[in-house]
């Protein structure tokens, strides 16, 4: 909740150092909690613990937490972070859902990096295209979003991608943007979103009057 103190206890179960970054939260006066390994803090050694303390103060909205050592965010070390406001939202809604998008490679980041750096001629690079995951699942296996007719939904959409952009829309529905990157915005109706790595949006979607048809979000 806005104004609360956020305490995150990290235990490193990896065999390499780690650290975390709260993407979008200000660290004024507490940059030692910002996460960049060997920049603002030492990495948390394997088997050790570290406690992060964040004062949310006036911030609220849609954020995310990710690893900030050895590009661990590229290997799945991330999760949403939602801070609710203490005041009435710009548009009142009935329910909220969080959706995450990410690119997923079959090899760890450092394996890919070592391969690229070993090339004498970049033109010999063999492309390694990622898969796209929605809420941690392959797009074809992601659970459907169940809308109740006439209800108004807030979708918190987080792009946890490392390199790739994502586009999101729900055919047959309009979306009204009310937040971008943890900042409330004037309501703006759109057909879809185009999101780069790290970006977050909140949109309002009103379900149709009937549940006779299904719609494939993409």
Q: Summarize the biggest pleated sheet.
A: 7 strands, mixed
Please write the string of helix (H) and strand (E) elements: EEEEEEHEEEEEEEE
- The main sheet orders its strands as 8-7-6-9-14-11-12
Q: What structural category arises from helix and sheet content?
A: mainly beta
Q: Strand tally, please?
A: 14
Helical content (DSSP H or I, runs of 4+): under 10%
Shape: globular
Low-confidence stretches: none
> What would the average pLDDT be, to the nearest integer?
91
Oligomer: single chain
Report the total helices.
1
Give a nutshell description of this structure.
5% of the residues lie in helices and 38% in strands. The chain has one helix at 109-118; strands spanning 5-11, 20-23, 49-55, 61-67, 78-83, 95-104, 131-134, 137-138, 152-159, 166-168, 175-180, 183-190, 193-195, 200-206.
Describe the structure.
The protein has 218 residues and is mainly β. The protein has one helix at residues 109-118, and strands spanning 5-11, 20-23, 49-55, 61-67, 78-83, 95-104, 131-134, 137-138, 152-159, 166-168, 175-180, 183-190, 193-195, 200-206. The protein contains one helix and 14 strands. Helix content is 5%, strand content 38%. The protein starts with a strand and ends in a 12-residue tail after the last strand.
Topology, please?
Elements: E1 5-11, E2 20-23, E3 49-55, E4 61-67, E5 78-83, E6 95-104, H1 109-118, E7 131-134, E8 137-138, E9 152-159, E10 166-168, E11 175-180, E12 183-190, E13 193-195, E14 200-206
Parallel strand pairs: 6-9
Antiparallel strand pairs: 1-3, 2-4, 4-5, 6-7, 7-8, 9-14, 10-13, 11-12, 11-14
